[in-house]
Amino acid sequence: MAASDQAELRVDLAALAANYKTMQKHAGAAQTSAVVKADGYGLGMAQIVPTLAAAGCKVFWVAQLNEGIALRALLPEAVIYVLNGVPRGTAKEFAAHDLRPCLITMAQVEEWQAYCQDNHQDNTPLPACLFVDSGFNRLGFGELGVAELAAKPQLFDGWELSLIASHLACADDPTHPMNAAQLERFRNALAALPKAPASLANSGGTMLGPDYHFDMVRTGTMLYGCSATAREEDALLPIASLRAPLLQTRQLSAGDSIGYGATFTASGEMTIGIASLGYGDGLSRYFGTHSPSKVRFTIGGHPVALLGRVSMDSLAVDLTDLAGLARPPAVGDMVEIFGTDNPIDRLARQGNTISYELLTSLGSRYNRIYS
Length: 371
Known about the structure:
The protein is α/β, with parallel strands linked by helices. It is built from eleven helices and 18 strands. α1 packs across α3. It catalyses: L-alanine = D-alanine.
C-alpha cells in the first residue's frame, strides 16, 4: 500500500487505447504510428506500449538508441524508429536490436550504407528512415542536402529506404502559413528522392487533414490526453491524473507569509493546506511565481489557488473559500494537480508552459496506478 504522504499518478490505459482508435479515424488511409519517447511521455513506456500494441499499433518512435533498445525488449515484432539518428559507431547496435535509425546527416547515410554493405549481403538490406528538414531547422536534410542526395543515387545502394519523414513546426496552429510552406517543401523533397513511403504529420498535423497524412502519421501528445492546439476543448480523453494528499491545514492572520522568499502575504484571516508535491516531483517552481489567482488546482471539484513558491516536496493552496462546506478539506484529502476536474492543458496554460512539458517532467516518487 502506498504511503499516505505520497502523491498519486493514475493512468487510464483504456482511455489511451480509445485515443489511439480516434487518431486512427482522423488519419484515414494512413498508418497510425505512436511516439513513445521520454518514457511514454512520462507515463511509463512499459505500460503504455503494450496497450498501444494491443490496440493495433505496429510502428513506434523513440528519440534515443537506449530508448529503442528498451522498447525492443517490450515488443519483439514492432517496427521501431529512432529519431536522433545513428551516432557514429552504433550501426551494429541498431542492427542487433532491429532498430531503424532516422538518418539526419550525410555522414550517417554513408556510415549506415557502409555497415549494411559490409555486414548484410544476404539479400536482406537493413531499413532506415531519411529525415528531411522542411523548415523546422532542427534535424535532417535541408534543400541543399536533399539535392546532394539526389545527385548521388549510389548512396542508397545496399540498404532499404523504408521511409522519408519530416516534422511540422506549427501544426498546433491550423491557420499558420508555415504548415503549407512545409508541405510544399516536403513534396519537393519527395519528388527529388528515391520513391519511398512518407510521413509528415504529428498529432497536430494529423488534424490538418488528408493533404498532410501521406502514408503514415506519428501520433504523440493527443494519445496522452493533451491537446495538439493547447486548447483543452480540443483534447481527447484524459488518460492521466495527478493528485497529492494534504499533509496539514493551517490558519493564517493578516501579515503572515508563506514559503521561501515570503512571496505571498495574507491580507486577512485565511485557511491554507500544505500538499505533498513539489518541484522534486516535476512541478516547476515557475508555477509559484504567479499571483495567487493565476494557478489553480482542485479539491473535490472545487478550485483552489496555489499560494507562494513551490518547494521541493510541498506546495500551499488556499482553502479559505471551502471552509463553509459541509465537510471542509482535511488532512489526507487529495488535491488534483491535473486530471478530470483540472484539465492538463488548462494547468499548462496557467503556468505558461505546455502539457508536453508537464507530462515529461513527472518524477519517480508517485504511487503509479494503472487501470
